[in-house]
Amino acid sequence: MERWKGKLKAREFEANVEIFYRMPTYYTLGEWYGYGTVTQSIEEREYETNLGSIIVNNIKDSNYSKLLFGFTGNGDLFLPRE
To answer: Which of the listed residues 13, 58, 65, 73 has the most CB atoms within 10 Å of its CB?
Structure first.
């Protein structure tokens, strides 16, 4: 299993995330997943992001200024080239 850390950007929010996946990077629902932290409020629903479509679930308060959330990928994963 591979791991990637970086920025996930949606129209509604931006988050620091860690993603777990296996190569290749084209997938069906749930074959890549991760977690992240965000400072603004988000909902449990699907979002289009710079890394691919995600379904946010399991939102928890991690402290007074951040939310911790889990997500599953819904389709292909588009990691930035290094």
So the answer is: 73
